[in-house]
Backbone:
């Protein structure tokens, strides 16, 4: 690339107003030069016409003409400046540190001089004997940063212990016992790692986008579930409110009817009394007039025709008592309770259908089964065989309680399974955490990692401290178990009766949960059954 060189100064070709290279330069009578546009604009803004440099005043506005000679020189200068501003070193190349003005491309870098040289300035290193001993390498940019600050030698090795670049002398001093490799080797290894990172990053981004989609889908599903639940709950509460309002209306009607009956009786009695009063008043008037007559004949004739006094009631025993409302409210509340219970019986069925959708397929794990237990080949049934078998020792096996876990465990989300308990006189089932004690007589309650129902002697309890005794409406045939791991909920259902039995809430789960079955005594099996939502 040709590099221009000139001794001209930009000041010689600059307008003193705009400070740029002249454009259509003009000369005033005082000998100063300006761009035509600059001096014209300057005079347009002044009251007097004067030179911006020497302040010579012109009585009339000068008629200016372009200075062709100066204009040609300015044009040549602009061309020269454009040539000068063109770099002689490409952006990816190392410039010569010795060149002044325009820098040429370096062809070598000297590690001793810490300087990069173009072909011209490299000549002394090729001619002078002392300089010929200097170590020349391919051109390097920022050579001072590539030198060891302690030994002033090229950083050409990499310490894998301290993960820093070192020179050759560093390997026999500060990094004597450290493994070192050439920079190129470490570069290739790091490049490979970086390449793997570059490959992994899009995958991780995609995984996170997928996770965002899953979360958004969950939120959308949750919104739909919430809307459905609110709608269902609204229907239930509307029905319940209707029952309460109906009970209230019936109660009010009963009270009003009692009051109405009392009022009617009072009105009838008052009417009868008023009639008797009227009859007695009339007779009194007749008798009073007759008693004042002195006509013997008239008196006797009238007295004979005087009617017998009208019959009257003995009012001393007659009374109107306020109506009694004792028991009216309780009878209404009893009726309301019966109605509400009928409505409430409809709820477990809908709730059971909702939890049944989280059915999981689980099978029993023989490695955890007590030696008395016998499992079916499909892993769905277990019963007490009555005697212990010789089985290999296994740290997962129960050795005290006749229990067995499933192969499957759950660490998040929701799951549901059903167990047939028909014909069983004693049993226990539910879920347990992975770290439960399997060898000692541990009290099986939530604090020790068990959430289970136990049935014995016709008594059903949830094992807690203390035990929670549960009502039995009929003989249990099948028990459903629902777990919401994230919400800390364990619920039990009477599947045949479609009745909710019990829920343990506010549980804290921090490890995998396993369904657990304990058939206890008698030969009838506990059977993990498929869910039948049409039951």
Residues:
């Amino acid at each position: 690339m040709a590099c221009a060189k000139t001794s001209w100064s930009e000041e010689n070709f600059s307008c003193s107003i705009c400070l740029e290279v002249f454009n259509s330069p003009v000369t005033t009578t005082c000998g100063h030069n300006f761009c035509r546009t600059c001096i014209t604009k300057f005079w347009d803004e002044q009251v007097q016409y004067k030179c911006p440099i020497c302040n010579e005043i012109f009585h009339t506005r000068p008629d200016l003409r372009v200075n062709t000679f100066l204009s040609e020189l300015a044009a040549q200068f602009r061309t020269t400046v454009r040539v000068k501003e063109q770099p002689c070193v490409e952006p990816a190349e190392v410039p010569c540190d010795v060149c002044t003005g325009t820098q040429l491309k370096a062809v070598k870098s000297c590690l001793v001089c810490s300087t990069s040289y173009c072909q011209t300035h490299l000549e002394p290193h090729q001619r002078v004997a002392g300089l010929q001993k200097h170590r020349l390498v391919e051109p390097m940019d920022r050579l001072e940063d590539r030198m060891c600050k302690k030994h002033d030698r090229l950083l050409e090795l990499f310490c894998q212990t301290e993960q820093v670049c070192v020179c050759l002398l560093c390997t026999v001093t500060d990094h004597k016992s450290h493994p070192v490799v050439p920079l190129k080797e470490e570069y290739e290894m790091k490049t490979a790692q970086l390449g793997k990172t570059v490959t992994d990053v899009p995958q991780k981004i995609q995984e996170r986008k997928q996770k965002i989609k899953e979360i958004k889908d969950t939120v959308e599903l949750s919104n739909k579930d919430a809307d459905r639940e609110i709608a269902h709950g609204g229907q239930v509460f509307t029905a319940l409110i209707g029952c309460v309002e109906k009970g209230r209306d019936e109660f009010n009607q009963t009270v009003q009817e009692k009051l109405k009956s009392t009022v009617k009786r009072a009105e009838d009695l008052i009417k009868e009394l008023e009639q008797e009063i009227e009859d007695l008043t009339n007779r009194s008037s007749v008798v009073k007039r007759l008693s004042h007559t002195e006509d013997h004949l008239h008196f006797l004739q009238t007295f004979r025709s005087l009617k017998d006094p009208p019959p009257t009631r003995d009012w001393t025993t007659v009374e109107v008592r306020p109506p009694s409302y004792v028991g009216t409210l309780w009878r209404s509340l009893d009726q309301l309770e019966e109605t509400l219970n009928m409505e409430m019986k409809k709820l477990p069925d809908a709730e059971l259908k909702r939890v049944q959708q989280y059915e999981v397929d689980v099978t029993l794990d023989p490695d955890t089964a007590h030696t008395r237990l016998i499992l079916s080949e499909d892993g769905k049934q277990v019963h007490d065989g009555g005697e212990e078998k010789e089985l290999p020792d296994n740290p997962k096996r129960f050795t005290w309680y006749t229990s067995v876990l499933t192969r499957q465990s759950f660490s998040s989300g929701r799951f549901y399974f059903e167990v047939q308990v028909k014909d069983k006189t004693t049993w226990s089932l539910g879920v347990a955490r992975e770290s439960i004690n399997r060898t000692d007589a541990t009290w099986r309650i939530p604090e020790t990692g068990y959430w289970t129902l136990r049935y014995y002697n016709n008594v059903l309890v949830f094992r807690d401290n203390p035990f929670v005794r549960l009502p039995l409406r009929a003989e249990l045939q099948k028990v459903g178990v629902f777990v919401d791991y994230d919400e800390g909920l364990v619920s039990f259902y009477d599947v045949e009766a479609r009745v909710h039995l019990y829920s343990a809430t506010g549980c804290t789960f921090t490890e995998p949960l396993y369904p657990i079955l304990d058939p206890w005594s008698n030969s009838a099996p506990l059977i993990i059954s498929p869910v039948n939502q049409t039951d």
In short: The chain is about 35% helix and 15% strand. Residues 114 and 143 are 6 Å apart (CA to CA). Residues 183-291 form the longest helix (109 residues).
